[in-house]
Every structure is written in structure tokens, then in C-alpha cells.
Write a structure and sequence with these properties.
Organism: Streptomyces flavochromogenes
Helix content: 55-70%
Oligomer: single chain
Structural class: mainly alpha
Number of strands: 0
Distance between the termini: 44 Å
Protein name: SalK
Pfam family, one: HTH_67
Order of helices and strands: HHHHHHHHHHHHHHHHH
Shape: globular
Strand content: under 5%
Number of helices: 17
Length: 287
Amino acid sequence: MTAISPREARRCHNAHHPVHAAYYFVSEHDDAYAKLGLEGGPMAYLAGRAAPLGAVGSGVVTAVFYNFHPDLVARHLPRAWEVASPAAVLEARLRITDAYLTRLLGREALRSPEMAEAAELALRAAEGCRRPGRPLYSANADLPAPEAPHLALWHATTLLREHRGDGHVVALSQAGLDGLEALVSHTATGTNWRPGYLQSARGWSPEEWAAARERLVERGVLGGDGELTVEGAELRRAVEADTDRLDVAPYEWLGAEGTRRLTELAGAFSKVVLAGGGLPLRDIGKR
């Protein structure tokens, strides 16, 4: 293992993350799940992301996803498993991924030595992830890695994303931010994600959002204008720093040279995915 700074680890994560994250936003996502009988939007999202956990109920998913309203989750789980089994959903995940990466990157890129190398590096990094306290990572880690390099890369980036996400939940909890407070304070950082979008997508009512905002004002995290105070900005900085610290292990396992190479290779693929609208950053959460 080689010492890697949290900054280097985050840079690599940012480089490969679009390859994974586009899965949730491409047209192939809801289309494929509709063929299984799953409703688009929250049901498809929840089932697709929770499928590695098995046919779990809403309580487990609410806990591990952290910032979704329990009632929203309960409307769709476990009802989704009556429509499509977790195994069927997992098969659909790979079909979706194959379709959008083929469309956005092209078959030549999928068959390239660079794709094979990126997949090998990402899978090796994922070997350094830690299971304890990481439910979503650990559930995905029980799945076999696909043979096709582009699917193996997506599988590995999913492992790395969920490992980081599990650590982020730990950091939020330690900071005393519940799921809704995490969303409210996050939107105050100047992110592209707007309050109205996250409130609706995660199932929170305007009244619940306003109550969480008031709690954060009382704690001194937000000012009366809804903007982060100096203390609130430091709290969010500390959450991100803790998330980075908790996510260093896979990149230390990969080593400095491997991490730099994965950043380079995956970053190139991610640029193509972004340029093709696979992850429409300018449009996501704008309301």
C-alpha cells in the first residue's frame, strides 16, 4: 500500500464517477425497468440501487440511503419486488449499462486497451475497500464482476461510489445532520442541486423542508437568509474532509501510479460521457 492524500483520492473518484452515475439519468434506465413492470422515477431508482441488498423492505433502504423520506421508500418497497425480483433488476442494470456506454462511448472505445486497463485498475482499487459499516458497498461486492471490460469498469466504479457513499453517511451522522438536514445544508453550499428538486425527488414536503431549515438556523448552521454561516460552512467542509479520509483506502491499495493512471483513463471516458449528455450536469436539479 502507498500513502495517497485525500485530495488525490477525491480527484480519482471525480474522474471515474460519471461513468457510474450516468446510469441513473440516461433514457435507457426507466425504459428498461418499465419493461419489467417497474414505475419510472423513484421506484426504478430505489429498486435498481437496492437490488444488491436482496428483497429488503423499506426500513433497510431508508437507513442505508439516508436522505429519502421513509414514506416515499415505503410506497415502492417491498412492492417493487412483487413486480420484478432483485435478480431480474440486477440483470437489467447491466443491460442498461451496456446500452448507454455503447451509445455514448462507441464500440471501438469499449474494445480498446484503455478500457481494459481502466477496468483492471478500478477493480484492483475496489479490492482495497472495507466492508465493515459499508452496507451498500458490501452488497455490491458480493456480485460477480462482469467479463466485458466496460461492464467491469462500471461494476468497479459502482463499488467505489457506494464505498464512498457509505462513508459519507458516517460523516453526516457524526456531524449531527439527519438525512433531511444533510440535503438542506448541502443545497446551501452552492451546489447545482436546487432545494425544490431534492425536496421532491427525495419525498419531503415543503413543511418538512422548512422545519429542517429552521433547525439548522437554530443550530447556527444557516443564517436567517438560508445561507451557510461561517460555522455552517466549516461543518460542511469537515463532513467532506471526513468523507475523503474515509475513502482513501482503495486508492492506497491501488498505489500512487495506479491511481494517477486510473484518473487519466477514467477521466477521458467520463469526458465523453458528459459531452454526450449522459450526466446532464447543467440541467440536473435546476428547479
